[in-house]
Amino acid sequence: MIVPSIPGFGFSDHVSLADDSTARIFAHLMTDVLGYQNFVAAGGDMGTGIIKSMAVQYPQTVKAIHLTDVGYPNGTEDWSTMSPAEQQFGQFIQYWWYSEGAYNMIQSTKPQTLAFGLNDSPVGLASWILEKFNTWSDNKGNIENSFTKDELLTNITIYWVTETINSTIRTYLENARASYGPQGPKAPVKVEVPSGVAVFPAEAPMPIEWARRMVNVKRFTRMPQGGHFAALEVPEAWVGELNAFFWSADAN
Description:
Layout: H1 19-33, E1 39-43, H2 46-57, E2 62-67, H3 84-100, H4 102-109, H5 111-120, H6 122-135, H7 149-162, H8 165-179, E3 180-181, E4 184-185, E5 191-199, H9 208-214, E6 215-222, H10 230-233, H11 235-246
Parallel strand pairs: 1-2, 2-5, 5-6
Antiparallel strand pairs: 3-4
């Protein structure tokens, strides 16, 4: 099992790259550096875009993927072709962007303005990070139902001591530049390699129809507990779901 550090994050150099560039680096790491000619990949959040890109760019090498989200509407969709469940999902995402998406807008457009403040203030950095862990987890009103203080402080400390919050949030700008050019947003490319998808209850209520538009769904599971950072919040459930898919005939 290989757990890479995304460029610009934590243990990596202070460089910000779009998902396609990171996907090429990870593929080089796996094949040319570590010598794996075939492998499977799993992730969510920032990892979703990277892993989908790896599967699209290297379908003969990436044999299967597992995701906790498959991507979200970006303005290229024809909603008249969508199922009622997909349209309801789209309305939810639109509401979510207006109520929770400010972080994404500033990180995608003016990251440096935010970065200097967060890099100079441990309280500001902690507040910015903890708010996301609290809002995006299945914690029933108490963040410590999902994460221990040690887990939260470790995460914050990694950003603080490495001073990577700047390069981390600038990654959003690089992805925005790659996806939204003068001609408007680019339509996503569907992943054709076998894909498993797990939807956690504190995440957006993604219907299977939407997942099938984005990836080649072979397993679709609605999980009983967990949120956006499922691998940290409910690691045993997340690993169990990965094993169930990757060891199945559908992933091979």
